[in-house]
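Hey L., structure's done. Input below.
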Amino acid sequence: MRNYFQPTPRGNDMKFQLRTNLQLLLLLSIFVSPQISAQLLEEVVVTAQKREQSLQDVGISVTAFSGEQMEALGFNTSQELFQQVPALQMNSYNPGFTVFNLRGISQNNFQDHLEAPVAVYADDVYLGSMNALNIQMFDMAATEVLRGPQGTLFGRNATGGLIHFRSRKATEDEWNGYFKASYGERDDRVLEGAVGGAFSDSVRGRIAGRMQKTDGYIKAGNHPFSGQPATGRDGGENDGFVVRGNLQIDLSEKTLLDLQIQHTEDNDVGTGQYVFRFTTPDTSGTPPTLLGIAEGDTLTGDVHRHFSSDPDVGYNREATIYTANLKHEFANDMELQYVGAYVDLEKDYKEDAGGGLFFFPAVFIADYEQWSHELRLSGSTDRTRWVTGLYFLDVEFDGFLESGGVGSIGDPTGLGPQMGDMDSKNWSVFGEAEFDFSDNLTLIAGFRWSEDDKEIDFVTSTLDFTNGCPGDPDRATAPPCPDGTIVFDSSVHLAGTPYDGDDQIDYGDWAGRLQLNYKFGDTLLYAAFNRGIKGGSWSLSDSVNPEDFQHHEETLLSYELGYKSTLLDGKARLNAAVYHYDYDDYQSFSLLNVAAQITNTDATSYGGEVELAYTPNEHWNINLGVAVIDSEIDFVPGVRPGSGVTDVDLPQAPDVSFNWLLSYNTDVAAGNLTLQFDGNWNADQFMEASNAPVTKQESYALLNARTTYAIGDWELSFWARNLLDEEFLIYNLDFAVFGIDWEVYGPPRQVGGSLAYRF
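Output:
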């Protein structure tokens, strides 16, 4: 068997070996599994098929955490999920903008109006803005990560999979809740808590909140040429709070109204700096790609030190989510459910993209509003289970980008403001049914028709040097006009040409699922075909060629085999899946014409995951996961038009990755002591689809440690994150055409402790 820790040349032999290993792994899992009915592991309940089911009964590759597990892992935000989910990676250039990558599928373009192919839901509500995906993790009920296309039940933007965050709801119990305080290095202060219970026999509520302040870990360094200290502020801070309220009302014995509001604020968070390296562009070929092929050390000599000259960078975000969930149960095992939501998000972000080499501030402002409505009817008989529904999504996006210092900054040499207003409406009708041919064999079929209606109004303003200031004939070299005005030529330009292209999208397509489940004893085998879809959009930049301004929808054909079983007298749970992806018009990020944009190409990928949960006795808990990926994108453009690279890997798709958790608990004195180690290891991977050498992240491992002592209602914990102080990229942008590479690294080692009281 191939040793995945050693580099292996790409090619047909490697692909054959990987495919053979996956097949053997799945077959071995099947034949070594004894058929035992006893259950000692805690049952994991998921909602992957729009109803509550045991994880082991769902023919989908799912990783799920209970609220208690997430707390034991010390998850602070959704960005930390990747450490314990096979085939999940994370990409982020500031605390608010989050890109999830699942099985190598992601949307790496940083433009605010785009939607991701890994759909994110919070309490049954789709979150269409990537500025809303960094969620503080507190008072959670569960989190589910579904791998593979989920378009039948979850819509047009779930080709890569789905992540669903579910918060704790109000309960009928007596008043209950918790309070928790944490403190760690970098003056990391966290206060959180929740309280709730029944107001009467038919009304109950819960309110929860969390606030965090942390000093930045990206410190100001010394300028590489002058040796002078940088004047920019620290980056990587936290400064925000979340408040969530839930009210449940029993309108009748069979009718439940669930109302929820969540408000999030991030206030002047220190961010917006990059770590710079000088890079060498590839000038070979005709025309050359100009992608980075060589790099030196960071200019400050430290991956956590910048030399930005702008002390005014930072991030502000305010988001509110209103949700109404109405559920009615009929007497004949049918249920009607409506989920309606309104999302209002405002973002104001400023970065220093010049990093101290030159003054190049960039301001991103986004105003995002979303209405969504879903109506579902479900039911069951002795042999069938089914769900059907209608969905409507209305998104209004107003975005503003100002780079290079035009306008308020007053730098006449910069680029002009770019403004994009997008109106996006989607409606769909869907249904999925399960039919039991026998006690062992089940057929699942699903279908969704999705209709997108979008339009964009994009304007970019460029400086008009020909008119000059009044009385100033040499405007091109003069400072801003004395009265503070700047002369603009305000019209849409793409690559220097007025744009007359299509500013509307009228797109309809279908997603589908066809699957067979075979259940014997405590083992489930499944074979699934899924067709996933993702809508098209636009690349908002005046440097984009007119023919590339709009990118088309993508489709994915997915073939998957899976296995789930409970073993060893119910002490272990072993789940495995292998898959093959075939993409048509895959939406790939590139920097063609030195502009962030999406182009369409074809791609293929295959791989698999194995997860083992093992509880040998009441003291030990072991979780292990492994993922393997082999992928190929047909073509990714280089910087120069007409140039490009072929047969490259999907971004952030390491050939092999591992995750682990080892926990031991024992009674000590009047309480219980738990010792825990967890983490992950990732093989080499490329941060961008171009696979430019400068975007390569070498293999790395993250290790975390935690010890907890619980006595009565009190709990004391001490923890260490990134115990080995590993340096790892969470963002990279190859600008070798200008001789530089922009990088953001994850946080270094941090130790701290927390004290919690539960009642």
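Helices lie at 12-31, 67-73, 151-154. Residues 1-39, 405-414, 463-493 have pLDDT under 50 and may be disordered.

-- N.
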